[in-house]
């Protein structure tokens, strides 16, 4: 493990300590504060070593190293003294080493009798308010709507990334920022990358996460309307899940007779396994200087939508591609009694045949499944006829007389799910496009999307990539798509769907 990885690991541990205390709405314990301080000293040492190594490799002069070290010393003295309500100017003018300033802080705490957790309390409320307002200001400035923006967010909407950076650095103890170029400001921000208490990285993280969740919640996908959500605790192949057989029929017990023992039957279910999917995006140095806030707001929302669309596509690929499933045969076929012999459009006869086929499926033990039809999945272009089929109370007979529509009673029971993903997977208009009837999810488990520990919103975290000028975020999510029981769906191979642009 190199020095940067060691430093990153220690910073993550610091963040865990702070998050645990904040979640519990308490101050740090003495043990936690001690560990936090020890980690900070180790981070400082590693930062100095890394900086020294990089400057040595680049041939930096001694004057440059001294200047950077002095800037770092001043910033840390300002930060410590501000947290403990102490004057920093004297320590800075006298060239007091950081260790001596820390010792003075500890002595100040002893003399005043303040608890170890006090630094978290000083100015914490105001800093948190500013960070929340700044993050929401970035979100709203990009054009995204927030239901309840943080107090003061609207007043900050006119501030550029540079303005917010200067405000953040000032609160962290930096001075003379207005005279510095945007490139210099950016370099100062980069040095705060691994500081868990630094304001600007926290503002970016907050804005990115909010934009990401917004994108996740608003993307137009349909897979979760007809699949079940599952949860797995690890990445192992889970193949030890068994289905209990039906309870035996009740038998008559004659007077003085004995009850007959029922023997349970089991059958192995399909395997389930998670995979990890992800992407990475960067707020580059150029984007910061150009004040391109879309990389902080709109891009995360797009990646969130991409994650959901990827799952959506994978679910429909199973329907369209008809792969072999856990029993070695194609999902839809004569072996499973869930495929119409020939494709049709949206007709009463086809719909009734599919309903009957679904309701007459038998389980693994030869018993009737009793599956209620609940969802019809169609490509774009079928839904119009589908609504006509179900919402007309009467139909024309061959003798051109009116008769009761037998499908009318299903209008409130069956939901039509239309998704153009099917059109794309089938090659677009001009190609044959199938459609499906699915049973109620309470009656059968047709397809399941599993997530690691049930977490369906992707994880997003800020990372550092050597040689890259920018703030970088990793985005990843763990999921797996599994066919659980072929009995839960009936497929109609469909007909060729013409392009609406070719119609007269």
Give a brief outline of the structure.
It is built from 15 helices and 13 strands.
Overall description:
With 504 residues, this protein is of the alpha+beta class. Among the domains are: 127-220, no CATH class; 275-502, no CATH class. The protein has 15 helices and 13 strands. Strands 1, 4, 10, 11 and 12 form a five-stranded mixed beta sheet that branches. A hairpin with a 6-residue loop joins β11 (459-463) and β12. α1 (3-23) packs antiparallel against α2, α8 crosses α9 (182-190) and α10 (199-218) packs parallel to α12 (298-321). The longest helix has 29 residues, at 30-58. It is elongated, with a radius of gyration of 32 Å.
What is the terminal-to-terminal distance?
68 Å
- Unreliable residue stretches: 114-124
The biggest sheet, with number of strands, parallel, antiparallel or mixed sense and barrel status, is: 5 strands, mixed
Helix-residue proportion: 40-55%
Shape: elongated
Q: What's the gyration radius in Å?
A: 32 Å
- Tell me the β content: 15-25%
Order of helices and strands: HHHHHHHHHHEEEEHHHEHEEEHEEEEE
Label the structural class: alpha+beta
Number of strands: 13
The count of helical stretches stands at 15
- Mean pLDDT over the full residue set: 80
